[in-house]
Amino acid sequence: MIGPYDLQVDQSLGKLIRVIPDFPKPGIIFKDITPLLSNASAFKSCCLAFAELADQAEYIAGIEARGFIFGSVVAGLSGKGFIPIRKSGKLPGQTLSVDYDLEYGTASLEIHKGLIPADSKVLIIDDVIATGGTASAAVDLVIAAGLIPIATAFLLEIPPLGGRSRIASKYPKLQIHTLLAE
Question: Is 86 an annotated catalytic residue?
Answer without folding.
Answer: no
